[in-house]
Amino acid sequence: MKFLCILCVLCGFASGARALEREAFTIAKYDLEIRLEPEQQRLGARGKITLRNDSARPQKIVALQISSSLNWRSIRVDGKTVQFVSQPYISDIDHTGALSEAIVTLPAEIKPKDSVELEIGYEGVIPLDATRLTRVGVPDEIARHSSWDQISPSFTAVRGAGYVAWYPITTESADFSEGNSLFEVADRWKKREQDASMKLSLSTDAGIDDARLILLCSAVGLSGDTRGGNPHNHWATCEYERLGLATPIFAMGDYNQDQSKPPLHLFSLSGHEAGAATYSSALEPAMKFVSGWFGQPTAPVAIADFADSNSAPFESGTLLMASMAAEDSKLAGINLVHELVHSALPSSRPWVYEGLAHFAEAMYRQEQGGRQAALDLLGLHRAAFLDSEKELAAAPQKSAGQPLASTFDETYYRSKAAYVWWMLRDMVGDETLKQAIRKYRSEDDNIKDPKYVERLIEAAAKRDLGWFFDDWVYRDRGVPDFRVQSVHPWKTEKGAPIVTVTLENLGNAGAEVPFTIVFEGGEITKRIEVRAKGTATTRVELPGTASEIVINDGSVPESDLTNNVFQISASQK
Ligand SMILES: [Zn+2]
């Protein structure tokens, strides 16, 4: 019966929604004052938002959405209250699995590309809620560590759109149980909002028991603990000139900042002193490494602790939320390297900004544990995008995939991009790539010159890389699939053993791949460029008779690794 009722409700919305274009308006500007009352888990907000009609038709109705645990209080245009109907809207874009939607009738039609400013007020509570995960069968314990957003007296941390709609959004319904629906809706929202600006002013009255309470948010800003003559009024202001791909987040806790050293702000919780000290002592070597590759990190970056040490880490721009409960110097090192790369190298291109940071983590791991340790770290990224690449390969006519240059899918601009930078480094060498990266300027990397990065590396390497950028960056051509097509062992006149090896790439993306020839008493590794759907042949001189060829040490993402080992039979020898 309950199921039937839910069905009725859904049908009701669906019929009413037909005329409503929920994604017609983009919110171009936010200016919000947020008041937190952690004892009651409450949030109260008021401020102004600017809506721009990005659809092709004039619009008079707008659907504004906030988390279902919040309620709309007032909506005004030009100082006059406007009529709105508030209704629940089922959508997994919020942690509660639903939104409070205000269907607003604007005083006048807004023409395409025109904007309207709304004064808004809303309030409610944000308790921990893992509904959207538990209702698709994720065990409660796991769901709580992933869906950790909440306002609470002991610790507060709340992520924005995609997790908790604590600021208004305008989206179609997203469904976690339907393949990629949630990610598609959330990525579409990010894409529409990338140029939006956001100004936040957060505050809380902590009372007299407020020794170390710190309120922070994830953008350039300020914070403090006295205002308006009230010594317990803690506040933070944050400003995004452009949201980019960042998900705004705010956090509040009894944070200790003693281990901070510029440019790093370290916010640790009591009981985690040893973990914070691990971060602090890992800072100097990480700074040295990042400076050598990416330039001196100077812009402030922050790492903030979690009260629940099992909370999944989360990054928003230059703020990383990660537990400091453990004294893990390896993890602290790579987390620091990642954030310091952001500090040293700003970029509005996600595959450059995040791709380089993840690539740097792998290089840092190599410095400490060798190439295999680095490839193991990169390997953790492989599964993330390989499944989507395989789907694309199976039905290439269905979509253009996710080209790195334009994707809003983080598995691509983080995981695939890390591999692309690693392959470039293997192809052109450390010094050459360093030289290119040090010349990189975010302001020169713009829409007018989509090939800026390619040109920088080509100039340093004195080598044509157009084919590589075509296959991996400008287009999504999937990944290669290498196999040995033929092997011919022979001997020179003087009797020195040589093998002629022909490798084939069955995939649609070309790459330079390492291959290892095992011979009596040792092995030798060479590299060879094999273009998409092509073959390449090379001769290798050996000190002994070859027995086996292994293609790819894991540095090139590949769709099928089962055909990478080739035994050279006795008859061929
Ligand atoms: Zn990052």
Describe this structure in words.
By secondary structure, the chain is of the alpha+beta class. It contains 12 helices and 25 strands. An 8-stranded mixed β-sheet has the order 5-4-8-2-1-10-13-12, with no helix packed on it. Strands 15-16-18-17 form a 4-stranded mixed β-sheet, covered by helices on one side. β17 and β18 form a beta hairpin. α5 (273-294) packs across α6, α6 packs antiparallel against α7 and α9 packs across α10. The N and C termini lie far apart (74 Å). The relative contact order is 0.07. Bound molecules: zinc ion. Zinc ion (ZN) is lined by residues 315, 338, 342, 354, 357.
Number of helices: 12
Q: Characterize the biggest β-sheet.
A: 8 strands, mixed
By helix and strand content, what is the structural category? alpha+beta
Report the sheet-strand fraction.
Answer: 25-35%
Bound molecules: zinc ion
Query: How many angstroms does the end-to-end distance come to?
Result: 74 Å
Helix content: 25-40%
Could you tell me the number of beta strands? 25
The outline comes out as: globular
Give the low-confidence spans: 1-18
Rounded mean pLDDT is 90
- Strand order in the sheet with the most strands: 5-4-8-2-1-10-13-12
Please state the CA-atom Rg, rounded to the nearest Å: 27 Å
